[in-house]
Each structure stands twice: as C-alpha cells, then as structure tokens.
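Researcher: Go.
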Amino acid sequence: MNTPIQGTAADIMKIAMINTYKELNKRNLKSKLILQIHDELIIEAKKEEKEEVKKILKDCMENVIKLKVPLTVDMCEADNWYNAK
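Model: Structure:
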C-alpha cells in the first residue's frame, strides 16, 4: 500500500534533482549538487552564489510537479554538515 506513495515521492525527488542540476549548469555556477538524502538535496555552494542557489533550489523543488496540495521547501545552511539541522 505504501509503495505507490514512496515510489512517486522518489520520482519527484529525482526530477527535482535533475532540474536543479541542469539549472546550476545552465547558469555556469560553481556551486555543485553533491548529495540526495531521502527528501533533501545537499548543495555545496560558493558564498557569492548562495542566494541565487537558494532561489534555484526552492523553485526547482516546489515547482517540480503540480499537485492538489502545494509542495513546500524548508531550507537551512551551514558551514559544515554537523551544523546543518
């Protein structure tokens, strides 16, 4: 019973990851998509690109697909993974 939900969520994340990767490359940014963990995307961003990368990530994840309920994104940033909570 849970398989269709989890499978669909995984597909949505993969599409969001591809769209984010393509947009970072299209804009010739040095920031890199480095990891996906469940429903999270980890980007190693250059400080000077941080705000642009945050906008790209939010847009790519929230607009990956149109559903009856909105997809919303929470973001955090840190200088290392330990502090990223």
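Model: The first strand starts at residue 32 and ends at 37.
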